[in-house]
Design goal:
mainly alpha; Growth Hormone, Chain: A
């Protein structure tokens, strides 16, 4: 698979764009907090990141399926270069961060990602053989987690040593590199899909995507499960984990950082472990998804009972591998069972629902933490994970799903 030049180009595009947007987000979050000393204003970056997917998801999916995926993410990177250029212009002068303007720019960057991400994911099964989907998704996820970990580690230090304007220059360069490499990708033409799409209206494509998802025996229950999973995912936002660290563990921000690092290390190891579980993931993806949901509930409950920072770090680390393996299984299962001409719409709709739930959950649990013990919130999250596992177990199509190349 690593000898596949087209996949390697896509892999680099994924690394460069992920590093660019995560580094910008982390440094902006820290800069806003340092300038305003307001947790609420800093948390506004989460809303700016999540809102575009909720508003634009289905529209993005239709356009991704109607046009060249390669050209889609090239154009999105060019738009993001312009947006970062605007940020650079506003950041000149006294060094103060114009919070409202930065929110708008971050929203624009995230809106571009709403189109960029499903285009990247939908291109994977076009560029690699179906037997290599698990390995391809494992490599993509592992590198993504490494990049995010680097962004959090380096970004927090970088913003204290380097002006945000200079960081924005580096982010712009990363987007330029991504767009340039993307131009080298050779995307196979989808003649039959293009002919059909030209004969139907945008709105017909829009509603046909919803109907396809509604009746697909795998995509529908998997999307429902992932959407519900993002309710307990909301307890793992930075604000709630920081509250757990300070209130339940009597630690500080550095102790919170150790837990986040532990989680990312676990995700990276889980992504790499999925490479060695390729045959199992192809043969039993549904069962693995069920098992991983159960483990997420058990480990969240164990985390809720942590009495010291290092015990919490351990459970944060242990939580990572099943999450990574689940993500690889879910992406590979969608790519292996959904029609290629519908994949962009399915991915975009999934992202819309997941982001809406995650945004709601983060705000809801943050509000709830003012009234109940922070440990109780994590217990609630554990119960919801168990309920998603029960749902997946009760759905025969999802539970017994397979990714055998001889079948799909």
């Amino acid at each position: 698979m690593l000898h596949n030049r087209q996949f390697l180009f896509l892999w680099f595009v994924n690394i460069a764009t992920t590093l660019a947007i995560e580094l910008f987000t982390v440094t902006v979050l820290v800069a806003i907090y340092e300038q305003t000393q307001s947790t609420l204003l800093a948390a506004g970056t989460m809303v700016a990141r999540s809102l575009p997917a909720f508003l634009l998801g289905p529209v993005a999916g239709v356009l991704v399926d109607r046009f060249s995926r390669k050209n889609m993410f090239i154009s999105m990177d060019l738009i993001r270069i312009v947006l970062v250029g605007v940020a650079i212009w506003f950041l000149q002068g006294d060094g103060q961060v114009p919070v409202a303007v930065i929110y708008l720019i971050l929203t624009g960057l995230s809106a571009a990602e709403v189109f960029h991400a499903p285009a990247r994911l939908s291109l994977i099964p076009v560029l690699v053989d179906i037997g290599d989907l698990v390995r391809a998704n494992s490599v993509i996820l592992a590198s993504r987690q490494i990049v995010i970990a680097i962004s959090y580690t380096v970004g927090g230090w970088l913003i204290l040593a380097v002006p945000l304007r200079q960081i924005a220059f580096a982010v712009a360069i990363l987007f330029v590199m991504a767009a340039t490499i993307a131009m080298l990708i050779v995307e196979p033409k989808r003649d039959e899909v293009e002919e059909v799409e030209e004969e139907v209206t945008f709105w017909h494509s829009f509603f046909s995507g919803w109907n396809y998802l509604r009746y697909h025996p795998i995509a529908r229950p998997l999307t429902i499960m992932e959407t519900v999973e993002h309710l307990p995912h909301g307890i793992w936002t930075g604000a709630l984990m920081l509250a757990f660290t300070t209130q339940a563990l009597h630690g500080d921000a550095s102790d919170w950082g150790y837990q986040v690092t532990g989680y990312f290390v676990g995700m990276i190891l889980g992504s790499l472990g999925a490479l060695f579980m390729g045959d199992w993931l192809r043969r039993y993806p549904g069962r693995i998804i069920v098992i991983d949901a159960i483990l997420a509930g058990v480990f969240t409950l164990a985390y809720a009972g942590s009495q010291t920072v290092w015990v919490a770090v351990f459970w944060g680390f242990v939580f990572g591998p099943p999450c990574a393996i689940r993500d690889v299984a879910q992406d590979s299962l969608l790519q292996g069972t959904v029609d290629e001409g519908q994949l962009g719409r399915v991915y975009a709709t999934r992202e819309m629902l997941r982001n809406a739930m995650f945004m709601f959950a983060g705000l809801f649990f943050a509000w709830l933490s003012d009234f109940v013990s922070i440990r109780i919130i994590y217990v609630i999250g554990s119960v919801v994970y168990m309920l998603t596992a029960l749902y997946a177990l009760s759905n025969k199509d999802l539970r017994e799903s397979r990714m055998n190349p001889d079948i799909w």
